[in-house]
Amino acid sequence: MMTPQAFVNVQLYPSETAVMGDALRQLLRLKPDVRVGVAISLGHSPLRLCVKSEDA
Asked: Residue 15 CA to chain centroid, in angstroms?
């Protein structure tokens, strides 16, 4: 299994925090049910958890 440090070691990301942040953004983008569950548990609208795509 890959670790966040492996991505930092090959200089794909500047830090483990950056790796985890990107992973979580992708998870929320690809799994709307997870985004809704997180939004409900945080008391937010699911739309507030949508993250700007860097492709757009």
From this structure: 14
